[in-house]
From TrEMBL:
This is Amino acid/amide ABC transporter substrate-binding protein (HAAT family). Belongs to the leucine-binding protein family. Keywords: Amino-acid transport, Signal, Transport. Residues 1-23 form the signal peptide. Residues 25-366 form the Leucine-binding protein domain. PANTHER family: LEUCINE-SPECIFIC-BINDING PROTEIN, PERIPLASMIC BINDING PROTEIN OF ABC TRANSPORTER FOR NATURAL AMINO ACIDS.
């Protein structure tokens, strides 16, 4: 059953249409419904809808005003994304937009929010530049950024005498991620010896892996290959099949969606840091999300479901604080420094760049009976005060 049908059955009072119905509050979800990141997009949308439901106690009203969500498909194309976001603001009257999935697409959308002087809550695109050099004051991000990924993974993987190579996709997500990771490694005692970038649609990693092996072959001490990846291709599984252990190299990576964790089962003991895994956070919001998602979809919530829910709750909290959705300046004032509860616990919008500060989780993979994937088991929660996230704008 489609996401729209399921949610329509679950929340009959909520208007979900391709164009805005008559409503006081209109929220546009502008995201890659089709394309290579479709799985991420679906999770994000489910989470957004559940977040709105949770924060409004199922009424889908904010202070008596009904909410309409309109969906716009970026098709993972920057030009299309700009056009449909402008359509959402200009033609459909959306006061707030949420999305997209891709960092490259998000960067194309930022100037549109500024042009229309309307808010864009970025979820889940990751690149630092979104709340960094390309940022404007109409942009808030509930998703984590590359620095949060990088610093948490540097804490998990770094140490005296450790040498690390990286493999990443050759676009904003990958390059920003490696740059932040390199910076975060400083002071951990670890050394970054080699950077490898490949096209986003790569499926054959033989040449890239050989370059990494050659760069690491003569290095003494502990050696790790840190992989930053989104979407298909399975670089971790394919490189693991090439037996990097013959060069003394251990594979490491951050967290991912449940489907991608199947590759982690082949690497018990693998360490990294993750944004979310449904069994890790211990709070009332996550308990509700896990219970409701299991009942409605016969599966636990996934990586980007939690992020979408955080965005939905943030929208409701911001509108309540601002006394409505019409005054963008009032919304900005309400959101700067705002704290709210999410499936990951407390998040806080930093006033300087509107980046949501949040916990990350150092994990170690375990193989557990009855699970067809490697389970990320918590080693340590890295809270807001445990990570010094740079301000880059």
């Amino acid at each position: 059953m489609s996401t729209t049908k399921i949610l329509g059955a679950a929340v009959a009072a909520f208007a979900l249409t391709g164009t805005a119905a008559l409503a006081d509050i209109t929220i546009a979800h502008v995201y890659g419904k089709t394309g290579a990141l479709e799985a991420y997009a679906e999770q994000s949308h489910i989470g957004l809808m559940l977040g709105l439901e949770y924060a409004t106690d199922g009424t889908m009203e904010i202070d008596g005003e009904p909410v309409t969500v309109i969906e716009k498909d970026t098709q993972l194309d920057p030009a299309t994304a700009r056009a449909v976001l402008a359509e959402a603001y200009g033609d459909d009257g959306a006061q707030i937009a949420v999305g997209p999935v891709s960092s490259g697409v998000a960067l194309a959308m930022l100037p549109v929010a500024q042009e229309y002087e309307r808010l864009l809550i970025v979820e889940p695109a990751v690149a630092d530049s979104i709340t960094g050099e390309s940022w404007n004051r109409y942009i808030f991000r509930t998703g984590r950024n590359s620095s949060q990924d990088a610093i948490s993974n540097a804490v998990a993987l770094g140490g005296e005498g450790v040498t690390i190579a990286t493999l990443a996709q050759d676009y904003a997500f990958g390059r920003d991620g490696v740059a932040a990771f390199k910076e975060a490694l400083e002071g951990t005692g670890a050394t970054l010896a080699h950077e490898e970038y490949v096209p986003t649609d790569t499926t054959d990693f033989t040449a890239a892996a050989e370059r990494i092996f050659n760069a690491m072959e003569g290095v003494k001490g502990e050696k790790k290959l840190f992989i930053i990846w989104a979407g298909g291709g399975n670089p971790m599984g394919k490189i693991n099949a090439m037996d990097p252990s013959r060069f003394g190299i251990e594979i490491a990576t951050g967290g991912n969606i449940l489907a991608a964790l199947t590759a982690y089962k082949e690497l018990p003991g693998l360490e990294g840091a993750t944004y979310y895994y449904y069994e890790i956070p211990d709070n009332e919001v996550n308990d509700w999300l896990v219970t409701q998602h299991q009942e409605r979809y016969d599966s636990p919530p996934d990586f980007f479901t939690a992020g979408g829910m955080a965005a939905g709750i943030a929208v409701v909290e911001a509108i309540r604080k601002a006394g409505g959705a019409e005054d963008t300046e009032a919304l900005i004032e309400a959101m700067e420094g705002m704290e709210w509860e999410t499936p990951k616990g407390t998040m806080r919008f930093r006033p300087e760049d509107h980046q949501a500060l949040q916990s990350m989780y150092h994990f170690r993979t375990e193989v557990q009976e009855g699970r067809d994937y490697g389970v990320p088991v918590l080693v340590r929660e890295l809270g807001i005060d445990d990570m010094d996230i740079p301000i880059r704008n």
